[in-house]
Amino acid sequence: MKGAGTDEAAIIKVLAHRTIAQRQRIKLAYKQTVGKDLAEDLSSELSGHFQSVVLGLLMPVPVYDAYELKAAMKGAGTEEACLIDILASRSNSEMNAINEVYKKEYGKTLEDAVCGDTSGMFQRVLVSLLTAGRDESDKVDEALAVKDAKDIFEAGEARWGTDEVKFLTVLCVRNRNHLLRVFDEYKKISKRDIEDSIKREMSGSLEDVFLAIVKCLRSKPAFFAERLYKSMKGLGTTDSVLIRIMVSRAEIDMLDIKEHFLKMYGKSLHSFIKVRGGAILNCLNILG
């Protein structure tokens, strides 16, 4: 960063090849030896999407998630996709950490922020998710699984209109193993996958969040592989989605995401990102 211009390759070489823990130590060492904040210096030197990637890499995951949620609800309009991607996919412990960081960094609870920026049943689903109350045991109650499947069927396909509360009660509270059994039972009853019924019964953001919940329960890596593919498919790139997933999942399940991406689309994630070019994507390619 010294002098005119910025050596982007050097920044990528250092930050994209280090773990999150190592980057925190680099930030501390930079402040000790230079007497300035590394993130602030990089922010003033860089711009655009490359700046977003680099600053994201310097944040611990809960801090980055809280930052992304805050940005999604900033100003006019809301980036519902960001709220869905994060809230539908995080574990209870991850969600509790995000809630703690959000309150500390932004002076209000994440629940208050979400309630102030969303409405209706979509809001209620998000609030249920961010309370981090999902059962995370491995227990499967066979009788309850059959009842849950029947309740969902009767709340949607078997009636005029849809009782979304019943979907919320089952999909946002039960543990993963139990819900996988519910999905199997549901298919026996309705003759279609739960995802197909959600698409038939709902629309807009509510459809999106329920589909995300189901897909994450089936396979988080497959869910994120699909999100990455759609962010780069067709004309242009949805850079915010691409950046958010690559930065936030880099040390969690990126290897699994890459494996699912190749299996689902017949091309490597690396090759998909590579054709985009540019410093931002060179950085993301290393992460991937």
Structure description:
With 288 residues, this protein is mainly α. The chain is elongated, with a radius of gyration of 21 Å. It has 19 helices and no strands. Helices cover 72% and strands 0% of the residues. It has helices spanning 8-15, 20-34, 38-45, 48-57, 61-72, 80-87, 92-106, 110-117, 120-130, 142-155, 164-171, 176-190, 194-201, 204-218, 220-232, 239-249, 254-265, 269-274, 279-287.
Task: Record the SSE blueprint.
Blueprint: H1 8-15, H2 20-34, H3 38-45, H4 48-57, H5 61-72, H6 80-87, H7 92-106, H8 110-117, H9 120-130, H10 142-155, H11 164-171, H12 176-190, H13 194-201, H14 204-218, H15 220-232, H16 239-249, H17 254-265, H18 269-274, H19 279-287
What's a quick, concise take on this entry?
The chain is mostly helical.
Shape: elongated
Q: If you average the pLDDT, what whole number results?
A: 91
Helical content (DSSP H or I, runs of 4+): over 70%
Count of beta strands:
0
Structural class: mainly alpha
Total helix count? 19
Q: What multimeric state do the chains show? A: single chain
Evaluate the radius of gyration. Answer: 21 Å
Query: H/E order of the elements?
Result: HHHHHHHHHHHHHHHHHHH
Question: What is the percentage of strand-forming residues?
Answer: under 5%
Low-confidence stretches: none
The separation of the N and C termini measures 25 Å
